[in-house]
Design brief:
By secondary structure, the chain is mainly α. The chain has a domain of about 90 residues: Multidrug-efflux Transporter Regulator, Chain: A, Domain 2, CATH 1.10.1660. About 60% of the residues lie in helices and about 5% in strands. It is built from 5 helices and 3 strands. The protein starts with 9 loop residues before the first strand and ends with a helix.
Amino acid sequence: MNKSKSKAAYMISAVAERYEIHPQTLRLYEREGLLAPSRSEGNTRLYTDDDLDRLEVILKLTRELGVNLAGVEIILNMREKMEAMQKQIENFVANLNQEFEQQAREPRLDDKYSLIPVIQMTPLTPSPRTEARRGGESRRKQGR
């Protein structure tokens, strides 16, 4: 089932022979919405390399794993959604990385932390009253 990638489109008879399936099976897959080959001006089905990749998945699921066509449809839909989500995640991560690189290169003036003044903490000197209380406490402790 290995094939070389090209820009060519294959007619239904060539695809059926290559994958050892009946052309009617390919028509069934199209009716069920599993495959969507393009059409020539004469309305001949033309299968692209992407169509053949999808057909290989369908055949693997049906032949090797015993999945019925309803299950194949669900699996193919889930694969498409997962691929779309993967692309979204990759774009999100790329945007995050780009933002981090930009922030690392130039500090932003609107950063809320850059506007907060640094507060110098000076040691507090105890009041005479606090001193007296401390002295009294230490005398009480010594007296016991």
